Protein backbone atom coordinates (compact mmCIF):
# COMPACT_ATOMS: atom_id res chain seq x y z
CA UNK A 1 0.00 0.00 0.00
CA UNK A 2 1.23 3.45 -0.94
CA UNK A 3 0.63 5.15 2.42
CA UNK A 4 1.13 2.36 4.92
CA UNK A 5 1.95 3.79 8.36
CA UNK A 6 1.25 7.41 7.39
CA UNK A 7 -1.05 9.76 9.30
CA UNK A 8 -3.22 12.11 7.27
CA UNK A 9 -5.32 15.07 8.38
CA UNK A 10 -8.15 16.10 6.06
CA UNK A 11 -9.82 19.42 6.84
CA UNK A 12 -13.30 19.36 5.34
CA UNK A 13 -13.15 15.57 5.51
CA UNK A 14 -16.92 15.23 5.53
CA UNK A 15 -17.33 16.87 2.13
CA UNK A 16 -17.40 15.12 -1.22
CA UNK A 17 -13.82 15.95 -2.19
CA UNK A 18 -12.40 15.58 1.31
CA UNK A 19 -14.23 12.29 1.73
CA UNK A 20 -12.91 10.96 -1.58
CA UNK A 21 -9.34 11.82 -0.61
CA UNK A 22 -9.77 10.39 2.88
CA UNK A 23 -11.12 7.10 1.57
CA UNK A 24 -8.22 6.81 -0.85
CA UNK A 25 -5.68 7.61 1.87
CA UNK A 26 -7.18 4.94 4.11
CA UNK A 27 -7.37 2.41 1.28
CA UNK A 28 -3.63 2.88 0.80
CA UNK A 29 -2.92 2.24 4.48
CA UNK A 30 -2.99 5.70 6.08
CA UNK A 31 -4.64 6.44 9.39
CA UNK A 32 -7.01 9.28 8.60
CA UNK A 33 -8.02 12.14 10.88
CA UNK A 34 -11.16 13.83 9.57
CA UNK A 35 -11.76 17.39 10.74
CA UNK A 36 -14.77 19.58 10.12
CA UNK A 37 -17.56 21.61 11.65
CA UNK A 38 -20.45 19.17 11.18
CA UNK A 39 -20.45 15.76 12.90
CA UNK A 40 -22.84 13.81 10.65
CA UNK A 41 -20.87 13.95 7.38
CA UNK A 42 -17.61 13.31 9.23
CA UNK A 43 -19.06 10.22 10.88
CA UNK A 44 -20.48 9.01 7.56
CA UNK A 45 -17.06 9.13 5.89
CA UNK A 46 -15.40 7.57 8.93
CA UNK A 47 -17.87 4.68 8.86
CA UNK A 48 -17.22 4.11 5.16
CA UNK A 49 -13.50 3.92 5.86
CA UNK A 50 -13.90 1.61 8.85
CA UNK A 51 -16.30 -0.70 7.02
CA UNK A 52 -13.63 -1.11 4.35
CA UNK A 53 -11.07 -2.06 7.00
CA UNK A 54 -9.40 1.33 7.34
CA UNK A 55 -8.58 3.56 10.29
CA UNK A 56 -10.41 6.85 10.77
CA UNK A 57 -10.98 9.33 13.57
CA UNK A 58 -13.07 12.48 13.61
CA UNK A 59 -12.82 15.87 15.29
CA UNK A 60 -15.19 18.84 15.31
CA UNK A 61 -13.00 21.71 14.25
CA UNK A 62 -13.18 25.11 12.57
CA UNK A 63 -10.19 25.30 10.22
CA UNK A 64 -10.23 29.09 10.59
CA UNK A 65 -9.55 28.82 14.32
CA UNK A 66 -5.77 28.85 14.65
CA UNK A 67 -5.66 27.68 18.26
CA UNK A 68 -8.02 24.77 17.59
CA UNK A 69 -6.08 23.71 14.48
CA UNK A 70 -2.76 23.85 16.32
CA UNK A 71 -4.11 21.85 19.26
CA UNK A 72 -5.57 19.23 16.93
CA UNK A 73 -2.32 18.91 14.96
CA UNK A 74 -0.41 18.52 18.22
CA UNK A 75 -2.84 15.80 19.36
CA UNK A 76 -2.50 13.92 16.07
CA UNK A 77 1.29 14.04 16.11
CA UNK A 78 1.40 13.03 19.78
CA UNK A 79 -1.10 10.18 19.63
CA UNK A 80 -0.21 8.80 16.19
CA UNK A 81 3.53 9.49 16.33
CA UNK A 82 3.69 11.76 13.27
CA UNK A 83 1.72 14.07 11.01
CA UNK A 84 2.60 13.06 7.46
CA UNK A 85 -0.12 14.43 5.18
CA UNK A 86 -2.24 17.57 5.41
CA UNK A 87 -5.07 18.37 2.99
CA UNK A 88 -7.39 21.35 3.33
CA UNK A 89 -10.58 21.28 1.26
CA UNK A 90 -13.00 23.26 3.41
CA UNK A 91 -15.69 25.32 1.72
CA UNK A 92 -14.74 28.94 1.03
CA UNK A 93 -18.22 30.48 1.01
CA UNK A 94 -17.97 31.69 -2.56
CA UNK A 95 -20.94 33.21 -4.38
CA UNK A 96 -21.29 32.17 -8.01
CA UNK A 97 -23.66 33.20 -10.78
CA UNK A 98 -23.39 36.96 -10.18
CA UNK A 99 -21.19 39.24 -12.34
CA UNK A 100 -18.46 41.08 -10.46
CA UNK A 101 -20.06 44.36 -11.54
CA UNK A 102 -23.15 43.43 -9.54
CA UNK A 103 -21.56 41.66 -6.54
CA UNK A 104 -21.37 42.87 -2.98
CA UNK A 105 -17.79 43.47 -1.89
CA UNK A 106 -18.08 41.06 1.04
CA UNK A 107 -19.31 38.27 -1.25
CA UNK A 108 -16.34 38.70 -3.55
CA UNK A 109 -13.76 38.88 -0.77
CA UNK A 110 -15.16 36.11 1.46
CA UNK A 111 -13.64 33.15 -0.43
CA UNK A 112 -10.33 34.96 -0.84
CA UNK A 113 -10.06 35.78 2.85
CA UNK A 114 -11.20 32.29 3.86
CA UNK A 115 -8.79 30.55 1.49
CA UNK A 116 -5.78 32.60 2.59
CA UNK A 117 -6.50 32.30 6.31
CA UNK A 118 -7.30 28.59 6.43
CA UNK A 119 -4.43 27.63 4.12
CA UNK A 120 -1.99 29.61 6.25
CA UNK A 121 -3.31 28.19 9.52
CA UNK A 122 -3.42 24.52 8.53
CA UNK A 123 -0.19 24.54 6.54
CA UNK A 124 1.66 26.21 9.41
CA UNK A 125 0.27 23.70 11.92
CA UNK A 126 1.41 20.79 9.76
CA UNK A 127 4.77 22.35 8.94
CA UNK A 128 5.75 22.65 12.59
CA UNK A 129 5.63 18.87 12.98
CA UNK A 130 6.88 18.02 9.50
CA UNK A 131 9.96 20.19 9.96
CA UNK A 132 10.88 18.19 13.05
CA UNK A 133 10.28 14.93 11.17
CA UNK A 134 12.16 16.17 8.07
CA UNK A 135 9.32 14.80 5.95
CA UNK A 136 5.71 15.38 5.02
CA UNK A 137 3.30 16.40 2.27
CA UNK A 138 0.97 19.39 2.22
CA UNK A 139 -1.72 19.16 -0.44
CA UNK A 140 -3.89 21.96 -1.79
CA UNK A 141 -6.90 21.71 -4.09
CA UNK A 142 -8.02 24.13 -6.80
CA UNK A 143 -5.09 25.73 -8.53
CA UNK A 144 -4.82 28.38 -11.20
CA UNK A 145 -7.28 28.13 -14.04
CA UNK A 146 -9.25 29.94 -16.70
CA UNK A 147 -12.75 31.33 -16.58
CA UNK A 148 -15.10 31.01 -19.53
CA UNK A 149 -17.48 33.83 -20.54
CA UNK A 150 -20.69 33.74 -18.55
CA UNK A 151 -19.38 31.58 -15.70
CA UNK A 152 -19.50 34.37 -13.10
CA UNK A 153 -17.35 32.61 -10.49
CA UNK A 154 -16.99 35.65 -8.26
CA UNK A 155 -13.98 35.52 -5.95
CA UNK A 156 -13.40 31.78 -6.41
CA UNK A 157 -10.70 32.10 -9.07
CA UNK A 158 -8.97 34.84 -7.06
CA UNK A 159 -9.03 32.51 -4.04
CA UNK A 160 -7.47 29.69 -6.06
CA UNK A 161 -4.76 32.04 -7.35
CA UNK A 162 -4.02 33.11 -3.77
CA UNK A 163 -3.66 29.48 -2.70
CA UNK A 164 -1.25 28.90 -5.58
CA UNK A 165 0.91 31.83 -4.52
CA UNK A 166 1.02 30.41 -1.00
CA UNK A 167 1.80 26.92 -2.31
CA UNK A 168 4.79 28.24 -4.26
CA UNK A 169 6.17 30.08 -1.23
CA UNK A 170 5.61 27.15 1.10
CA UNK A 171 7.36 24.77 -1.31
CA UNK A 172 10.43 26.99 -1.41
CA UNK A 173 10.61 27.48 2.35
CA UNK A 174 9.81 23.90 3.37
CA UNK A 175 11.70 22.02 0.66
CA UNK A 176 15.00 21.98 2.61
CA UNK A 177 13.17 20.07 5.37
CA UNK A 178 12.05 17.34 2.97
CA UNK A 179 8.48 18.63 2.89
CA UNK A 180 6.62 18.59 -0.42
CA UNK A 181 3.79 20.98 -1.33
CA UNK A 182 1.55 20.04 -4.25
CA UNK A 183 -1.75 21.28 -5.70
CA UNK A 184 -4.40 19.13 -7.38
CA UNK A 185 -6.18 20.92 -10.26
CA UNK A 186 -9.45 19.47 -11.48
CA UNK A 187 -11.30 21.98 -13.64
CA UNK A 188 -14.47 20.99 -11.80
CA UNK A 189 -15.95 17.78 -10.39
CA UNK A 190 -19.62 17.31 -11.42
CA UNK A 191 -20.16 14.74 -8.67
CA UNK A 192 -19.26 17.35 -6.07
CA UNK A 193 -22.00 19.78 -7.14
CA UNK A 194 -24.89 19.96 -4.63
CA UNK A 195 -27.85 17.88 -5.74
CA UNK A 196 -30.20 20.83 -5.22
CA UNK A 197 -27.98 23.33 -7.02
CA UNK A 198 -29.84 25.46 -9.55
CA UNK A 199 -28.68 24.61 -13.08
CA UNK A 200 -26.67 21.63 -11.84
CA UNK A 201 -27.08 19.56 -15.01
CA UNK A 202 -26.11 22.46 -17.25
CA UNK A 203 -23.02 23.20 -15.17
CA UNK A 204 -21.98 19.55 -15.12
CA UNK A 205 -22.44 19.37 -18.87
CA UNK A 206 -20.32 22.48 -19.36
CA UNK A 207 -17.52 21.03 -17.23
CA UNK A 208 -17.51 17.85 -19.29
CA UNK A 209 -17.72 19.68 -22.62
CA UNK A 210 -14.65 21.76 -21.74
CA UNK A 211 -12.43 18.67 -21.43
CA UNK A 212 -10.31 17.09 -24.15
CA UNK A 213 -11.32 13.58 -23.06
CA UNK A 214 -15.02 14.50 -23.00
CA UNK A 215 -15.27 13.14 -19.49
CA UNK A 216 -14.84 15.15 -16.33
CA UNK A 217 -12.71 14.07 -13.41
CA UNK A 218 -14.57 11.95 -10.87
CA UNK A 219 -14.30 11.88 -7.10
CA UNK A 220 -12.47 8.59 -7.44
CA UNK A 221 -9.97 10.33 -9.74
CA UNK A 222 -9.44 12.99 -7.08
CA UNK A 223 -8.83 10.38 -4.39
CA UNK A 224 -6.41 8.40 -6.54
CA UNK A 225 -4.44 11.52 -7.46
CA UNK A 226 -4.30 12.68 -3.84
CA UNK A 227 -3.04 9.29 -2.66
CA UNK A 228 -0.39 9.24 -5.36
CA UNK A 229 0.73 12.81 -4.63
CA UNK A 230 1.05 12.01 -0.93
CA UNK A 231 3.03 8.83 -1.51
CA UNK A 232 6.70 8.06 -2.11
CA UNK A 233 5.78 7.31 -5.72
CA UNK A 234 5.67 11.11 -6.08
CA UNK A 235 8.77 11.71 -3.95
CA UNK A 236 10.33 14.09 -6.50
CA UNK A 237 7.18 16.16 -7.07
CA UNK A 238 6.94 19.47 -5.22
CA UNK A 239 6.31 23.12 -6.06
CA UNK A 240 3.99 21.79 -8.75
CA UNK A 241 0.43 21.02 -9.70
CA UNK A 242 -1.03 17.67 -10.71
CA UNK A 243 -3.54 18.31 -13.47
CA UNK A 244 -6.51 15.94 -13.31
CA UNK A 245 -8.83 18.12 -15.40
CA UNK A 246 -9.08 15.66 -18.34
CA UNK A 247 -7.63 18.42 -20.51
CA UNK A 248 -9.92 21.26 -19.44
CA UNK A 249 -6.96 23.11 -17.92
CA UNK A 250 -4.20 23.11 -20.50
CA UNK A 251 -0.50 22.99 -19.57
CA UNK A 252 1.38 23.49 -22.81
UniProtKB/TrEMBL annotation:
<protein>
    <submittedName>
        <fullName>SDR family oxidoreductase</fullName>
    </submittedName>
</protein>
<dbReference type="Pfam" id="PF13561">
    <property type="entry name" value="adh_short_C2"/>
</dbReference>
<dbReference type="InterPro" id="IPR036291">
    <property type="entry name" value="NAD(P)-bd_dom_sf"/>
</dbReference>
<keyword id="KW-0560">Oxidoreductase</keyword>
<dbReference type="InterPro" id="IPR002347">
    <property type="entry name" value="SDR_fam"/>
</dbReference>
<comment type="similarity">
    <text>Belongs to the short-chain dehydrogenases/reductases (SDR) family.</text>
</comment>
<dbReference type="InterPro" id="IPR051122">
    <property type="entry name" value="SDR_DHRS6-like"/>
</dbReference>
